[in-house]
């Protein structure tokens, strides 16, 4: 059972496909907003076919389309645009992730939308942003991570920079777009007017890179990939235990390093000039890693983490998803929740009596937490009649629109 969300009463129209824009829409829906995902008839979001599938259920889709009502409207035809504008008049937010200029070509740019609904917030998510020499280029997360410098920082020195097994650039852009929407809605309370939130995948990937820009600008330092650790931050690495499991030990703060030294039975290390301060430990990082690695290799992972936790040292395992889903802490927090597909009825082919689980709503709000009300509908257009019915369209009207191909 879900609780009311902080965005209950807000309506969001989501356009676009794949991950970045829809992730922003998902986060708004998690907080209670009525998110209406608009897909073109016969051209649904390709994300519906991504990832693992079973019995007609696409699990990637069920997570990113959760809490959304799926409507099929062709925005490329005049009748479809008219339907969309009727929905815009009722909306607080539109999220789109097309290449810049697409809405303008369809004659539904922000000038048109704001004239109809001055309080509307338009979140535009694209590869390079709405302006600049690269604006019209198509953009994917992989390229955004590369051009922003984020990919360069990943991996080991001298090796090809790998990507994480996630579209992290998309997720970062979705998060920044979500943040921008919330800020714009808050500003609207003061001004009474909406605005455009311009989010670029490239800029989202750049914005999380700590001090790389001022470091280079003022000193010429180019941060390099550093494998399993951060250069100059020591000790903070992963070490292999006696039973061949990886354990992360992070004790780069002076007080925590003192506790690590005590746990190792080497309390004198905390007063050794080579290791007593943050800067000194960074200088002698290789020595520390070798010393800690040798010590950790003498203990089983469970023994190692128990000892370190008892001494107040920051530590933890490197879990697979199988271990994550049985972790007692995550289970106690109720982090995994069911994603029920509203478009499949019990007894129907493809019905699974055990719905897939996914991660619940993050962060947790104490009074208006929101929740996963349903998983993504596996059938495009599941809620078309419902949503247009709320605008006053009768069954006969819908039949005419459907016959014309305006709706799906």
TrEMBL record:
Alphabetic keyword roster: Transferase
Keyword Transferase: yes
SUPFAM superfamilies per record: CoA-transferase family III (CaiB/BaiF)
Top-rank taxon: Bacteria
One GO molecular-function entry: transferase activity
InterPro entries assigned to the protein according to its UniProt record, in alphabetical order: CoA-transferase_III (IPR050509), CoA-Trfase_fam_III (IPR003673), CoA-Trfase_III_dom3_sf (IPR044855), CoA-Trfase_III_dom_1_sf (IPR023606)
Pfam families attached to this UniProt entry: CoA_transf_3
Family statement: Belongs to the CoA-transferase III family.
Name of the molecule in the record: CoA transferase
């Amino acid at each position: 059972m879900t609780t009311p969300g902080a965005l209950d009463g807000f309506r969001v129209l989501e356009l676009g496909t794949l991950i970045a824009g829809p992730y922003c829409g998902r986060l708004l829906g998690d907080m209670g907003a009525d998110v209406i995902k608009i897909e073109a008839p016969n051209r649904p979001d390709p994300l519906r076919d991504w990832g693992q599938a079973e019995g007609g259920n696409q699990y990637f889709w069920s997570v990113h389309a959760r809490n959304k009502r799926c409507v099929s409207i062709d925005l490329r035809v005049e009748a479809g645009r008219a339907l969309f504008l009727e929905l815009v008049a009722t909306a607080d937010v539109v999220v789109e992730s097309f290449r810049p200029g697409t809405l303008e070509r369809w004659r539904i740019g922000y000038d048109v939308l704001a004239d109809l609904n001055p309080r509307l917030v338009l979140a535009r998510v694209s590869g390079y942003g709405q302006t600049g020499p690269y604006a019209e280029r198509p953009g994917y997360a992989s390229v955004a991570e590369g051009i922003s410098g984020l990919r360069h920082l990943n991996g080991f020195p001298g090796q090809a920079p790998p990507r994480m097994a996630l579209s992290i650039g998309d997720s970062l852009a979705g998060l920044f777009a979500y943040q921008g929407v919330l800020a714009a809605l808050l500003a609207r309370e003061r001004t009474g007017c909406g605005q455009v939130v311009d989010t670029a995948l490239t800029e989202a990937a750049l914005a999380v890179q700590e001090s790389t820009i001022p470091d280079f600008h003022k000193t010429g330092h180019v941060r390099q990939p550093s494998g399993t650790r951060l250069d100059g931050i020591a000790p903070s690495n992963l070490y292999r235990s006696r039973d061949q499991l990886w354990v992360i030990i992070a004790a780069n703060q002076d007080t925590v390093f003192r506790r690590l030294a005590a746990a190792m039975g080497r309390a004198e290390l905390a007063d050794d000039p080579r290791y007593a301060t943050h800067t000194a430990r960074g200088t002698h990082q290789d020595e520390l890693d070798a010393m800690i690695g040798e010590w950790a290799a003498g203990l089983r992972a469970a023994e190692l983490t128990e000892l370190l936790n008892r001494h107040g040292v920051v530590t933890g395992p490197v879990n697979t998803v199988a271990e994550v889903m049985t972790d007692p802490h995550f289970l106690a927090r109720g982090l995994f929740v069911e994603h029920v597909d509203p478009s499949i009825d019990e007894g129907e082919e493809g019905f699974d009596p055990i719905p897939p689980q996914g991660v619940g709503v993050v962060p947790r709000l104490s009074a208006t937490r929101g929740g996963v009300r349903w998983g993504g509908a596996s059938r495009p257009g599941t809620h078309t009649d419902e949503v247009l019915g709320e605008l006053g369209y009768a069954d006969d009207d819908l039949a005419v629109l459907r016959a014309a191909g305006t709706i799906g």
